[in-house]
Design a protein that fits this description.
TPR repeats: 44-77
Largest sheet: none
Number of domains: 2
Keywords: TPR repeat
Strand content: under 5%
Pfam families: TPR_19
Structural class: mainly alpha
Distance between the termini: 32 Å
CATH architecture of the largest domain: Alpha Horseshoe
């Protein structure tokens, strides 16, 4: 949605909700977000933040409900919605352990690279079918060969569209580094024209293709 079309009251409520959420006042944040959604139900951002706030409260069922709604509002991707859905649906079905998505987010929340690497390794060891952890691990490893192994593992795990896109982009970069520029370009070209690709990964693939051409 174009920012110019966002209702001013809904926008203010959303900003207030984010401040409340950052202060740990989740119930107050939820109330503000629900008000914003009532005013502008077609705006994905407050629905996305509502899902995330429920996640932080440990209400995974409600989080999944509103991530699904976010995905309906923004089917070509909205921040981490695709990965959240992939993980929470897996938790709900029993494929993944409960609380996996919150554990995965610890990688993003820490600034220490060694801690990030430790979390990613732990997740890939304990939940080897969890594709997003392989994506993170591939970004943290040293050496192109090890990174490529992690990428290939992630691609084998039936990843969500965003994770798959980033894995393919990173694979293309490594292929180009290895002198396989045509293979890299083909991989990026296929991603750009894929009906399943998210807007963010298509734009990143275009940027990467320009940089290696």
């Amino acid at each position: 949605m174009d920012n110019q079309n966002i209702n001013a009251t809904a926008d203010q409520l959303h900003k207030e909700a984010r401040q409340l959420g950052q202060s740990g006042k989740y119930d107050l944040a939820i109330a503000k977000l629900q008000e914003a959604i009532k005013i502008q139900p077609d705006w994905a951002y407050p629905t996305y933040d509502l899902a995330f706030t429920y996640l932080l409260k440990g209400d995974f069922e409600s989080a999944l409900k509103f991530y699904k709604r976010t995905d309906e509002l923004a089917p070509k991707g909205f921040f981490t919605t695709k990965a959240a859905l992939y993980t929470l649906e897996g938790e709900q079905s029993g494929k993944f352990p409960k609380g996996l998505y919150l554990a995965y987010l610890q990688i993003e929340w820490t600034d220490n690279k060694e801690q990030k690497l430790e979390i990613a390794k732990t997740l890939t060891d304990k939940v080897p079918d969890f594709a997003p952890a392989w994506k993170e691990l591939s970004n943290l490893l040293n050496g192109d060969a090890e990174r490529l192994k992690a990428i290939e593992q992630g691609l084998l795990k039936n990843p969500d569209a965003d994770t798959a896109g980033m894995l393919k982009i990173n694979k293309a970069i490594l292929l180009n580094n290895a002198g396989k520029s045509e293979e890299a370009k083909n991989l990026l070209g296929n991603l750009i024209f894929s009906a399943d690709a998210t807007t963010a990964t298509v734009e990143m693939a275009k940027f990467t293709l320009k940089s290696i051409s």
